[in-house]
Design a protein that fits this description.
The chain is mostly helical. It has one domain: Arc Repressor Mutant, subunit A, CATH 1.10.10. The chain is built from seven helices and two strands; from the N terminus they run ααααββααα. Strands 1-2 form a two-stranded antiparallel ribbon. It starts with about 25 loop residues before the first helix and ends with a helix.
Length: about 160
C-alpha cells in the first residue's frame, strides 16, 4: 500500500458545479469511519464488513435501530447489508493519510493521527452529534463474532 502513494506529492480536488450529497463526501466519510473505529470498535480493530454495516446504519435511523437490536441480542436476524463504494474510498484515503492502519489479521484500527482527529471532532458537541449519539448507543456491542454468524447464515442460506 505504501508503494502506491510513494510518488504522490499532493492531492488536488476540482470544484464541480453539482453538489455532492454530504454522505458521499470523502471528508465526511473519513470522519464517520474514524468515529466508528473510536466509538464502536474495540482495541482489537474492526473489519471492513463492520465498517460498512455501521456506516449504513448511521445513514438510516431505521437501520441503526435494527442493528442495535441485533447487537443487543433482541433479534437474531439482520438483513440491511449494503456495500458502499464511498466507504471503500474513504478507507483508502484514511490509510494513505495514515489515519488508519491495517493489522496483520486484516482488521483496521486508528493510528495516533486518527485518534487526534477524533478528539478534535469530540471537542465540538454540535459536530456530527447525531452520529456520536448513535455510536454511543451501539458502543462495542456489535462484535466480530456476531458478524461472522451473519456471514455463515449468508453462506448457508444462499448456497
Amino acid at each position: 500500500m505504501d508503494k502506491l502513494f510513494d510518488s504522490v506529492d499532493k492531492i488536488l480536488f476540482t470544484d464541480r458545479p453539482e453538489a455532492v450529497p454530504y454522505n458521499y463526501r470523502i471528508s465526511y466519510k473519513v470522519a464517520q469511519l474514524c468515529l466508528i473505529l473510536a466509538k464502536s470498535c474495540g482495541r482489537g480493530g474492526c473489519s471492513i464488513l463492520k465498517l460498512h454495516m455501521i456506516s449504513l446504519a448511521l445513514t438510516f435511523e431505521s437501520d441503526m435501530n435494527i442493528l442495535i437490536d441485533f447487537a443487543n441480542d433482541r433479534t437474531h436476524e439482520y438483513t440491511p447489508i449494503r456495500f458502499d463504494p464511498a466507504v471503500n474510498r474513504a478507507l483508502n484515503y484514511a490509510l494513505a493519510d495514515s489515519m488508519f492502519a491495517q493489522q496483520a489479521n486484516g482488521l483496521y484500527r486508528l493510528t495516533d493521527k486518527g485518534k487526534k482527529f477524533v478528539s478534535e471532532i469530540d471537542k465540538d458537541t454540535d459536530l456530527m452529534a447525531r452520529e456520536k449519539e448513535r455510536l454511543y448507543t451501539l458502543s462495542n456491542k456489535l462484535t466480530e463474532a456476531k458478524i461472522k454468524d451473519i456471514m455463515s447464515l449468508w453462506r448457508y442460506s444462499n448456497a
